[in-house]
Amino acid sequence: MKRLSKKLLFPTWMILLLVFLASGVGAAFIIFTRGLIVTNLSDMVPWGLWITIDLSAVALGAGAFLLSAAVYLLGIKRLEPVARTAVFIGFIGYTMACMTLLLDIGRPDRFWHAVVFWNIHSPLWEVTMCITFYLMVLTLEVLPILGHADWVQERWPELGDRLESIHRFAPVLAVVGLGLSLLHQSSLGATYGVLKTRPIVYRPGMAVLFIVSAMAAGPALTVLASKVSARLSPRAIVNDELLDQVSRFVGWVLIAYLYFRFWDTLAMNYTYEPGRNEGLRVLTSGSLAFNFWIGEIFIGAVVPMIILLSDRLRRRQTLQILALLMVVGGLVAYRWDTNLVSQLVVFNMLPQDLTPRYTSYTPALIEFVAGAGVIAYGLLTFTLGARYLKVVDHSSAEAEELASAPSPVAAASAAD
Amino acid sequence: MTEKTNNDAKTMANEKNSLGRREFLKLSAAGLAVTVGPAAVWKASRKNASDAEEESPHSWAMVIDQSKCVGCGHCTMACRAHNDVSPDISWNRVIEDEEEGTFLPIPCMHCEHAPCVHVCPVGATYQRSDGIVMMDYDRCIGCRYCEMACPTGSRSFNWQEFTEDNPAVPTWGQPEVPRRPRGVVEKCSFCFHRIDRGLKNGLTPGVDKAATPACVVACPTGARTFGDLNDPNSIVSKLLDRYPSFRLREGMGTGPRVYYLPPRDKEGEEDSNLEVCS
Fold first, then answer.
1. Secondary structure letter of residue A73 according to DSSP
2. For A294, which DSSP code?
3. Cβ(B71)–Cβ(B96) under 8 Å?
4. In this structure, are strands B258-261 and B60-65 parallel, antiparallel, or unpaired?
5. Quick one: angle between helices A276-284 and A240-267, nearest 10?
6. How far is Cα A216 from Cα A221, in angstroms, rounded to an integer?
7. A102 touches chain B (CB under 8 A)
8. Chain B residues with CB inside 8 Å of A34's CB?
């Protein structure tokens, strides 16, 4: 019975994802033909659920640049198989972001305009350019994985070898990827940070908060995806000890994130500024309060920080997986809150009128369906990658490590 | 430029035999391509900035007198007709302050330091040297970042296509500009087409009706005035000189070009010489 349920797991999962993907494609078709009128977005709240998915997908792809930098720049070679998973997830994340953006912009046929028509003063222009270039970097980083796959090697060995040979440039790609990621991960925060008209987000700290939270959640998703797939599929082989080191790093980044978030939020309470304090009230005691205190702070940062930093708690794998899931959820909550809090307080134009007014936003069903379709694409691609491209496979690296570095180990054991 | 580089290359190649002339020319050509290429793209991308060709001697502004505005909404309707705006959208909405019993018409402020111009990722919204914040509807990708940045909510997105007959036409006027497609952001343009055409025909915007924004012409109480801030004799300069005024969210420092005269005690006022468009 248990064997049967395990056998059924993969087809059930695939069917589920395909259903979501198909309905997402259907929703996208309606959106493209009928226009954004079918959403609950408005001129008051022009950015909603899709922007949240877009911001989250980019942030959760941050594991790619961090782990590539760790392996190829800091020389922590043992993390190489983890970096491979991270790069694959990054590629999925950035393609998800592009899909959501296509849904979200009013003229998807003009998506390429930012590349041709420059406005170097716009954070969004910089983000678009960086994401375009970084997607190329990620593609070059993913191609060797494709070339390495058994079914490519069997059918087209020459092509496979050629694709694998791109891996030579991994250190260069790591440098370029690091630069591009540091730029756009923070600029996504600055996208909000430059909006003087929305005082709750008009802070230089937005860039820092965005990149620090991405540095926690990106690697967290990489480890989470690796550990979960290793527990569900025999084709994914992980070295839990190696991944635990990354988890511990996530714990440390969470400390930094909490520190910045604490001062950032607390400092806003000093003196009154119209719009800013109302926004803070929406966040801490208004409609976003649950998201903020429970989603972002407690479950999203404090609890996982304790679990990931305590050796005893982290060693309990179920607990660690849960903590990593919390970090990912906390990041999504943070992006959702940040995007929405700036839009919910409505401005009064008159200088003497200080009474704040508020608006609200609940995504329409079609926004959820289209968003779920994009997420289903991501999960589907990762599942197929784990199954057929060996993106979660620490076994060969271990063997290589043992083969390439026998002397110090032997020397050490001899000395013992 | 290229010639000079070639000459330099020639002399250099003669002096230094270590680097062949051919290679040197190749190298300098490559270098030129690397430096000039992006610069050309950059220049092309700033094509809009040179639309006005030369520095305009004008600095357009609108003055709205709250003591004269009765909230009739003629401005909104005239604007919808002349600019072919959908009934779902107002380029020029009028807000009522019930406590004070006053009205606040809000067009685009055409800010001097317009946040929308700074944030537009494709430069679809840009500023002319006469101060008008323009929209390039063929370039806009509909990301709505400008709506996030606008201090007065003056921008509207085309959530759906406007295909029906415009109910404001012909009662309130005839469309003078093409209709915008679905999926782009639009806003008040200070009726730049009327200004430009009027100037070409020797008219004075703010004085001659044909050269003045439609809302100003349509206002039955003369609450709206339009003119050149650089001209000390223009109606707007005189009004701002005579009366105290305020601008919306002025503390943000964006420098709106729409000024408001707050409600005043009307007794004993004589400003018949400042009537506009009559």
1. T
2. I
3. yes
4. parallel
5. 130
6. 9
7. no
8. 160
Checking if the pLDDT of B222 tops 80, the result is yes
**Cα gap B49→A117, rounded to integer Å:** 12
Mutation to test the A interface, candidates B47, B94, B145, B162, most A Cβ within 10 Å: B145
- Backbone φ and ψ of A239, nearest 5°: -105, 100
B119 and A194 in contact by Cβ < 8 A? yes
Residues A254-308 pLDDT 10s: 999 999 999 988 888 888 888 888 999 999 999 999 999 999 999 999 999 999 9
What secondary structure does DSSP assign to B209-261, as a single string?
A: GGGS-HHHHH-TT--EEEEETT-TTSHHHHHHHHS--B-TTGGG----SEEEE
B88-132 pLDDT tens trace: 999 999 988 888 889 999 999 999 999 999 999 999 999 999 999
Residue B244: both structure tokens together: 């105290």
C-alpha distances out from residue B249 to A74, B255, B256, Å: 50, 9, 9
This model of the complex carries an ipTM of 0.90
Q: What is the pLDDT of residue A379?
A: 97
Helix (H, G, I), strand (E, B) or coil at A274: coil
Q: What is the CA radius of gyration of chain A?
A: 22
Burial tier of B123 (Cβ tally within 10 Å: 0-12, 13-18, 19+)? buried
CB distance A191–B151 less than 8 Å? Answer: no
What b/e readout covers A293-321, taking b as 16+ CB neighbours within 10 angstroms?
Answer: eebbbebbbebbbebbbeeeebeeeebbb
Q: Decide if B59 contacts B131 (C-beta within 8 A).
A: yes
State the nearest Cα–Cα gap between B203 and chain A, in angstroms.
34
DSSP label at residue B92: S
> A344, A345, A336: which is closest to A50 by C-alpha?
A336
CA distances from A122 to A99, A104, B122, B151 (A): 21, 18, 8, 17
Q: What's the pLDDT tens digit per position in B31-81?
A: 666 666 666 665 555 555 545 457 899 999 999 999 999 999 999 999 999
Distance CA B89, CA B104 (A): 17
Across B168-182, average pLDDT: 95
Q: Exposed, middle or buried by CB within 10 Å (0-12, 13-18, 19+), for B178? A: exposed
State the pLDDT at residue B36. Answer: 64
Tokens 């000039």 correspond to B36
Beta strands in B24-174 (DSSP E): 60-65, 93-97, 102-106, 125-127, 133-135, 156-157
**Angle, in degrees to the nearest 10, between helices A170-193 and A123-148:** 150
